[in-house]
Amino acid sequence: MRATGRGPSVYRRAGGRLAALGLALTVLTAACAGGGTGAGASSDTSPGAASARAAAAAERLAENSIVPLEGAPPTPVLPVTVDSSDGRRVTVEDASRILPLNGGVAEIVFTLGLGDRVVGRDITATFEEARKLPQVTKAHDVSAESVLSLRPTVVLADTDTGPKEAVRQIRDAGVPVVVLDPATKLSDVTTRTTRIAAALGVQEAGQALNKRMTDELAAARAGVPEGSRPKVAFLYLRGSAAVYLIGGKGSGADSLLAAAGAVDAGTQAGLDRPFTPITTEALAQAQPDVILMMTKGLESVGGLEGLLQIPGIAQTPAGLNRRVVDMEDGVLLGFGPRTPLVIDILVDRVHQDGQDG
């Protein structure tokens, strides 16, 4: 995760940076003592505190690690019967071998304190605790044979998990499969946590995690500078595949930007679909002050200099001022326990002109 820009609008003044880093160490120490994600302990709403929270959040994300709930891991109370998003009712009798087929779902399971019960992962579970687990997907396709070889007692999927034939094979083998709705906005984080905790028989742990995340999000939002409403365009780029899209209503980034006190430039420009091909006209209408991207997307077009070669980018206020914020792919739209860290960073990065001005 990094921010690219010119002058103090993105790179904080040296004195401010040192002060922020000093405060960040204090925030990290307090948060670790309290079992939080690392940025939720401070209630100071000053610009310096927002920078410190962002520094602490960046430190936590750089570790690429999960912070479980405090205390002993919860003991599942089973059996439970829950609704599955594919219209079924699914009974879970054993949560000793859990297999999440989504990175965000895996983060929630680990944060609930059930990581030692997880037996495998999909390609999007990239946090450190999951790396050692066997991968059961090739690209984004699930291998039923790989899943069944791990002898899971419950599989957690979402409606995007596929191919559907693989999900059917897993169910036909007698494994309970609980399907969840995809998380596409901030409010989905607590909803999904509640459903996962219910399916695994640890409802109280789910409530505790939701409270922790709600408190952290409130603290992050408190750092939004009064009167600052920058326009931010979320660009989804994959240069090697010639994919150049700008986010609009429903992209997921629009929800994050709203929480960070920013305006989604694509939505304001009238883009009513989650993603629309980038055109010079669309960029001219959006006129973003800041561009938000996934790190691999920025790398795929040759970094900042390559991004500025895309027609229309250099002519936007964001392009002219070289104001680009990028964050790791699996975290930015992960909508999981680390999402409050994303908001901490966005609050600091997208409002920096207003803070330094």
Question: What structural keywords apply?
Answer:
about 350 residues; alpha/beta; Rossmann fold; seven-stranded mixed β-sheet; three-stranded parallel β-sheet
Q: Beta-sheet strand percentage?
A: 15-25%
The helicity comes to: 40-55%
Any idea what the CATH architecture of the largest domain is? Answer: 3-Layer(aba) Sandwich
Q: What fold name goes in the CATH topology slot of the largest domain?
A: Rossmann fold
Helical element count?
16
Unreliable residue stretches: 5-35, 37-42
Report, as a whole number of angstroms, the end-to-end distance. 23 Å
Radius of gyration: 21 Å
| CATH class descriptor name of the largest domain | Alpha Beta
The overall number of domains is 2
Could you give the count of β-strands?
Answer: 14
Task: Characterize the largest beta sheet: strand count, sense, and whether it forms a barrel.
Answer: 7 strands, mixed
- Helix/strand order: EHHEEEHEEHEHEHHEEHEHEHEHHHEHHH
How does the helix and strand content classify structurally?
Answer: alpha/beta
The named CATH superfamily of the largest domain = Nitrogenase molybdenum iron protein domain
Shape assignment: globular
What's the overall average pLDDT, rounded?
A: 88
Characterize the structure shown:
Residues 97-354 form the Fe/B12 periplasmic-binding domain. InterPro entries: ABC_Transporter_SBP (IPR050902), ABC_transptr_periplasmic_BD (IPR002491). Residues 1-33 form the signal peptide. With 357 residues, this protein is α/β, with parallel strands linked by helices. 42% of the residues lie in helices and 15% in strands. It is built from 16 helices and 14 strands. It has helices at 14-34, 47-63, 103-114, 144-149, 164-172, 188-199, 203-221, 253-259, 265-268, 280-286, 295-300, 303-307, 317-320, 329-332, 339-350, 352-356; strands at 2-4, 80-83, 89-92, 98-100, 137-138, 141-142, 154-158, 177-180, 231-238, 243-247, 263-264, 275-277, 290-294, 324-327. The strands form 4 sheets. Strands 1, 9, 10, 11, 12, 13 and 14 form a 7-stranded mixed beta sheet that branches. A 3-stranded parallel beta sheet has the order 4-7-8, with helices on both faces. It has a two-stranded antiparallel ribbon with strand order 2-3. Strand 5 and strand 6 form a beta hairpin. Helix 7 (203-221) packs parallel to helix 15 (339-350). The protein is globular and about 55 Å long. The two termini are 23 Å apart. The model is unreliable at 5-35 and 37-42 (pLDDT under 50).
